[in-house]
């Protein structure tokens, strides 16, 4: 595909073009979601990228072909310079789209600044509208503030808004249906993300998406597939009768979409991960741009053809087996064992 800006494209050794960066600006978080972070204090050393380091990472990756940036964490809004980060990313050469994924807690204070800084879209992670369930899932009582933040970004007008929910086998169906109901009268999309067996997710069971689909149809009417892509990701979207917004599904485990992977991931300690699900990558030399370019080229070449979810005992066995590692991969791929809060989703 030709690049409208005539700047280089960053292709991996499987011919996929990488133009999308997920940048974890901090791995600290003010929630403790049951599938992501253990309760109590986070024992391991927290990491936070400085504004200068972020500026360098974006300048280098922008010059190599990255066009879209998702700012993630941990919780990105706890980064003390998050508004400056968004402004910097928006003004970074070749970066055309800057979005953010957040638990929503601090949006009530930060939304105006983020919008003024040029944020293009926000994803709010929200699994329930029930206060007791919210407390159980996040170990916090902040549902009213998250909902206030959601209202604020919706009122802001042209910011694209999505609500992301990770259903688990014990999610009350009524909760999941109520979340979809947010898209009835509001200009937002609600997406259901398959639980991934990473970190604490390995000890939980996800919900069968077919079960949810049947309940959505029974409650709201037929789901009509939407062909237009909404956003940067691999979600499949559907329209529901009389709904302003869409509902979407992201099934990284069951519907493998690795052949369309365009993603790069940099964690808050400056580690370049080659795949969400693999404990493999290279440490970026954050102070040396020329060395960073070389490291990124090497790391991109190490991107695997696909994730390893289907090799895990708790994932379905009828999916096609992952391809064997290519010769340029120096060691056997290992499944990721870090907490999701250290990767950024
Ligand atoms: N704190 C921010 C948030 O919650 O949006 C950004 C970081 S969080 C790790 C990014 C996303 O990963 C969230 O939508 C969260 O629900 C999702 N996530 C965390 N653990 C997961 C798991 N085991 N499987 C699937 N998604 C997960
Ligand atoms: Fe924090 Fe996001 Fe993980 Fe929840 S999902 S614990 S908000 S990083």
What does this structure look like?
The structure is a single chain. This protein has a single domain (4-164, 258-342), classed as TIM Barrel (Alpha-Beta Barrel). The chain is 27% helix and 15% strand. It is built from eight helices and twelve strands. It has helices at 51-64, 82-90, 107-116, 131-138, 143-155, 173-185, 209-220, 289-301, and strands at residues 20-24, 68-72, 97-102, 121-125, 160-165, 189-193, 224-226, 236-239, 247-250, 263-266, 271-273, 281-283. Strands 7-8-9-6-5-4-3-2-1-10-11-12 form a twelve-stranded mixed beta sheet, with helices on one face. Helix 1 links the parallel strand 1 (20-24) and strand 2 (68-72). Helix 6 (173-185) crosses helix 7 (209-220). Mean pLDDT is 89; it is low at 312-330. Bound molecules: S-adenosylmethionine and iron/sulfur cluster (SF4). Iron/sulfur cluster binds at residues 29, 31-33, 36-37, 73-75, 103, 125, 340-341.
List keywords for this structure.
single chain; 345 residues; alpha/beta; 8 helices; 12 strands; binds iron/sulfur cluster
Brief summary of the model shown:
The protein is 27% helix and 15% strand.
Order of helices and strands: EHEHEHEHHEHEHEEEEEEH
Provide the list of bound ligands, each named once: S-adenosylmethionine, iron/sulfur cluster
Estimated structural class: alpha/beta
Number of strands: 12
The first-level CATH class is given as Alpha Beta
The CATH homologous superfamily is termed: Aldolase class I
- N-end to C-end Cα span: 27 Å
| Order of strands in the sheet with most strands | 7-8-9-6-5-4-3-2-1-10-11-12
Uncertain runs are 312-330
Second rung of CATH, namely the architecture: Alpha-Beta Barrel
Arithmetic mean pLDDT: 89
